[in-house]
Amino acid sequence: MTNILIIGGGGMIGQKLARLLADQGWQGEPAEVTLYDVGFPQNGADASRRIVGNLTENGAAVGLASTRPDIVFHLAAIVSGEAEQDFDTGWQVNMFAGWSLLEALREQHEASGGTYRPRVVFASSIAVFGAPFPDQIGDEFLTAPLTSYGAQKAISEMMLSDFSRKGFVDGISVRLPTICVRPGKANKAASSFFSSIIREPLNGRKVILPVSDTVRHYHASPKSAAGFLNHAAGLDTGQLDGRLSLNMPGVSCTVAEQIQALSDIAGAGTVALISHDEDPEVAKIVGGWPQDFDATRARALGFQAETSFRDIIQTYIDEDLGHS
Amino acid sequence: MTNILIIGGGGMIGQKLARLLADQGWQGEPAEVTLYDVGFPQNGADASRRIVGNLTENGAAVGLASTRPDIVFHLAAIVSGEAEQDFDTGWQVNMFAGWSLLEALREQHEASGGTYRPRVVFASSIAVFGAPFPDQIGDEFLTAPLTSYGAQKAISEMMLSDFSRKGFVDGISVRLPTICVRPGKANKAASSFFSSIIREPLNGRKVILPVSDTVRHYHASPKSAAGFLNHAAGLDTGQLDGRLSLNMPGVSCTVAEQIQALSDIAGAGTVALISHDEDPEVAKIVGGWPQDFDATRARALGFQAETSFRDIIQTYIDEDLGHS
Fold first, then answer.
1. Is B149 among the catalytic positions?
2. Going from the N-terminus, what domains does chain B have, and what CATH number goes with each?
3. Which of A20, A42, B46, B316 is surrounded by the most beta carbons within 10 Å?
4. Which of A148, A162, A241 minimises the CB distance to B151?
């Protein structure tokens, strides 16, 4: 049975991925899925095993690697706002823990005489890019991050690429759009409001929009994010010609278009729960973010996302509204 | 007096830079120059102080930072061929030692109440780029390195950028072209032959060309490299708009053009000392290297290099021939 490890398996996307694997298995067969995280939600996704632990702890990566998972999803991270506030923790979790994981997997690769070479799927982010941008970012645009989080993600991608080039692991990095609509509570990511302005009104609660509604950004649903990771795990990486980091497809729209889509689905009364109160700090961070991607390579490789923000809202309604 | 630290000050470029500072001082005034390296050449450049040490040793970075240099040139590295052969040492020297340096400087920044914020000039490399390339690489092209050395340099750039963005240091990364003509012995860099095919014949010795003479690559002299670093140290980094890594100007030419320039300067008899014997491993590495850059930003910021390969050979003859 395929042995799958999801590091960060207690997080929102980790749980979506675990549910997808529990429902569909791995390539049609049941899989042994281990979730690893600092904590898990109540009534969480089914899995073969849940391990509570912290990848930054001494020996944690070595322990996980010693089980020789066939596929490792590495989703564990401190989010952007938190990494910006706590420099040390951001680098420890988002970079050094990933290095330890790669080293531990390499040790198993070498101990196996080279036969063990796990697929590693790394959840990266469009935060690897920094302004100024072209209107639509192509697949050969430079990574010049403007946040610590973005730098840590870009660096982790490069480490994974080099370990893969050397044949120690078989890696791929998936640069996720801003995931929207996130269920549950707001988190410390500066992007959190993109979800809140949809989720809160749909739950009958007031919400504050901290930026101008002319802000344009790039989104995919949690369902698509889990789909990207699952698709990446099964891809023939020989097709990537050594460029293992892929910009995912998504929906580019303004906040005004987001709100219009909400109005189309739920009516003007729901939209009236949104009020505008600019937060200069959030506006500044978001002003440095990309607006659109062509995602040519990822689309050609079969990655699929929603094609409208209405679909993104509908996914939230179908999957999460009333469940959280 | 300006306190200048050159880490890697015993190396070829470090020595050129030390000589430049000994001759011209720092912005017209004498400077206190400390050279730090694992070893120094005999009859080396003058300096206020030479320290023998290894930046990978525990406490080494902390000790260097405690002297609070105004300017830190970080040139210490394992070269590309060696980093490819010895994965662990490459990462330790080319990445982790740089991280320790940044952390040690940040500690001094914080201990000073934020007043200490040294200029850090990092010697990066065009090895941060990996094929396939456009014919001429622009300033917004992605860094997708195809060697461990290139990955380590690209990662170090991003760390320096983030420490600078946070205000801990005031950094700039200078992506050096392949430096040519290197005096002295061949080193383990895969690019070493670009120098050998000029240097050895000029010294009356036979040499083997391990690649086809149609190979096109991008060069600057050691004198220009020292000039780039010196210019970077004095630049107002506010002009960089947060993009702190710069592709340096240089000369793009084929090996055939290099050999023609040698013939123009030294005659057919000298060129006859070159024989062709393809080394598939070197040819493969070099095949993944860039051919040309526009270097628009660096030129606009006043960085200057040779404009022909003949000038590059002449610089070697003027500065190094007969001295080594």
1. yes
2. 3-178+219-247 (3.40.50.720), 192-218+251-300+307-319 (3.90.25.10)
3. B316
4. A162
